[in-house]
Design goal:
Order of helices and strands: EHEHEHEEH
Radius of gyration: 14 Å
Distance between the termini: 20 Å
Helix content: 25-40%
Largest sheet: 5 strands, mixed
Strand content: 15-25%
Structural class: alpha/beta
Number of helices: 4
CATH superfamily: Glutaredoxin
Length: 135
């Protein structure tokens, strides 16, 4: 499976489902965090549900970004996701760097600090820059 093209920015992949109670509480907090961070690319990925249910849920919790639909769970399997919610953070080179199973408090600096650090420096310590002509 091809990795998302980060274009010099870290990517947050957040796997969830509408029936998952911790997901219901966590997604609004992630939305608020993502809205403040234009140096991160954030994707919510619904695992195995129908479009209309996901669309309604996203509106209810205030998720205004696109939601990717993993209807057959192929993406979750490719990333080794076995529990919901699961968050995987890819660095600027699309290498998985952080994985968290279970819900996170996106208001907590101890949760967000590692993401912010990935967004402000590349693995070799440089400031991220888009070096790909497709960006």
């Amino acid at each position: 499976m091809a990795r998302p093209r980060a274009c010099g920015r870290p990517v947050v992949l957040h796997f969830f489902a509408t029936w998952c109670e911790p997901c219901r509480a966590e997604l609004p907090l992630l939305a608020a965090f993502a809205d403040r961070r234009d140096d991160l690319i954030t994707f919510a990925i619904d695992v195995g549900e129908v479009d209309l249910r996901v669309k309604r849920f996203a509106a209810q919790v205030g998720w205004s970004r696109p939601v990717l639909l993993d209807r057959d769970r192929a993406v979750a399997r490719a990333f080794g996701v076995t529990a919901l919610p699961t968050t995987i953070v890819l660095d600027a080179t699309s290498t998985p760097r952080l994985v968290a199973e279970g819900d996170l408090d996106w208001r907590d600096p101890t949760v967000t600090a590692p993401l912010v650090a990935l967004a402000t420096t590349t693995p070799d310590g440089r400031t991220p820059a888009c070096t790909d002509a497709t960006c």
